[in-house]
Amino acid sequence: MDKSNKKRNDKQTNLSEFALLNDRLNLTLSFSKRYQMSTAICYLRIILPKELTNNEESQIETFIINTVFTRLKGSIRDVDTVIKINRTDFLISIIDINEEDCSLICERIISYISHIYTIGSNHFTISSNVGICMFPYGSEQLQELQTISKIQMYEALNVGINQFSIYKGTFDDTAYRKVLIENELPYAIKKGQLYVKYQPQFHLNKEKVTGCESLIRWNHPRLGEVPPIEFLPHLETIGILNNIFFFVFEEVCKNIANEPDLDIKYSINLSVNQLLLKNLIPNLRKAIKKHSVSATNISLEVTEDIQIYTIKEVKEKLHSLKKIGFTIALDDFGNGYFSFSDFIELPLDFVKLDRDFVLSLVKNKKYEGIVSPIIAMIHNLGLEVIVEGIENHNQFLNWLKLDCDIIQGYFISKPKLFSELLNSIEELEVRVNSFIEDKK
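-> structure tokens emitted (440 positions)
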């Protein structure tokens, strides 16, 4: 069985199990109501080590999640129920329980999960948070019980890791907003609520806009514009990170097709998860062929992660993407560790400096002595340097002196809709070039 069929079967299994859980929960609530017993609905989220979040095929991660599931079942009674909702979330029902005893059980659950996991020579620690809503005091409706318990999970997370929180009749608006965003995000594409904005990138030597970064945005019918910082962290949790990437890629291809004479390279963030997809390259080929666009118009921004680029499959895939015509940019350079040999082995065209470089230079000019050699090294390798997060003219002047190549940030332009981008490029170039001339 290939991996795509396996994932499809796993998804069908999960849906079947979730339907059985709902049936069992409904029976549990009916039983509890008839015999006037209280039942706890608990929403549990585990926090996986960061080093495991970059590889969706990780056997270590699968082992840990399966072990967590086993420990969860071992911490409750046979009459209680536990099911895995997604990669990190579990739902537990505990029948005939009062609030005090439920607290003790949740403490035990958290303790069971937080033990060290040893796989070979590796040791991992898992943390968790639990939200609880009691039937019938919190609600008598199953869906409400599940939603409220999830909100309480976020309230527990606000307190700290390995905490639980029981619904007391009111809940925090911030936690409620997080649940609303997470629950409705999977439907945002289908309902046409997601769209793409483009932030121009100004090339200092060419004195014009040569690129723009494609950025996903969400216009929610009730919440209005949801900031990316609020919804982007949920994409991986709910399993739609790859869907969002392909959505953005498709939108970019449409815009390139509509304006084929626009000499701009569109950059799209490509996460480690997508690099590991077996269908990545076939899907990208299909999209550019569908819209009759060239891969040379698109730059793929990959995040600096030394561990993932040591994998042979990833290196080969990056070289394949380069051979097709895509340019490759290393994003957020400086927030990890990258050696000289790593640069030589990877087919890079651009290096995008991490925002911390910009902030550090603003706070202390002595960091110029660190940044200059880095830029020189990148240039010596035949690559261009992109600096993002330039918000004002002072920052712009600082980086202008440091001989970087491309500037991105609010000083150049805020992200714009594609139609707005087309209408603003000429004015933008005149403004920035005039500023540079005035400072010479």
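The two ends are 65 Å apart (CA to CA).
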